[in-house]
Amino acid sequence: MVTFWVSLLALSILLYVLLDGFDLGIGMLFGLTRDQARRHAMWTAVAPIWDGNETWLVVTAVILWGAFPAVYALLLSAFYLPLVLMLCGLILRGVAFEFRYKAERMRWVWDFGFVAGSVVATFMQGMTVGALVEGLPVTNGEYSGGEFGWFSPFAVLCGIGLCFGYTLLGA
């Protein structure tokens, strides 16, 4: 049974990285061009699917919560701050995406929000993965690293690397 849940968890993470990584990559590339025709092409490539791709992030969290509650508790207590920042970035992207069409003279604000939300969400995801790869301080099955125990130069490098990886995926 554990193999089933681990396989489902791996599949949901893979689908999130591929599908939302494409969206986040386009969001980061969006800030690198001023050509309105290119921006429109980027926007229309993402428009039909962008909000459905975060579903895989929710599926991942639910599988982790339901099948591996001890791991879920450990990870959420360790990564509370980066996950809140990632969710704020995803919310900023969503709000910017919806309001950009309605804005006329302040469109640049929503363009900036779309790019900034994409960068923040991606960078925080990369830092989280980097900290997991490096290892977390755990004592008696509980996280013992403090608020910034996940922060390290390696985690920052992984955050930057994921930004480049998602940008490549979006390209």
Describe this structure in words.
The protein is mainly alpha-helical. Helices cover 78% and strands 2% of the residues. The chain has eight helices and two strands, in the order αααααααββα. A two-stranded antiparallel ribbon has the order 1-2. The longest helix has 29 residues, at 2-30. The protein starts with a helix and ends with a helix. The mean pLDDT is 92.
In short:
It is built from eight helices and two strands. The protein has about 170 residues and is mainly alpha-helical. It is globular, with a radius of gyration of 17 Å.
Shape: globular
Low-pLDDT runs of 5+ residues are none
User: Rounded to an integer, what's the Rg over CA atoms?
Assistant: 17 Å
Cα distance spanning the termini: 38 Å
Strands, helices and their partners?
Blueprint: H1 2-30, H2 36-46, H3 50-53, H4 55-67, H5 69-78, H6 80-100, H7 107-134, E1 138-139, E2 142-143, H8 153-170
Antiparallel strand pairs: 1-2
Helix pairs in contact: 1-2, 1-4, 1-7, 1-8, 4-5, 6-7, 7-8
Q: Which terms would index this structure?
A:
171 residues, mainly alpha, two-stranded antiparallel ribbon, 2 strands, 78% helix, globular
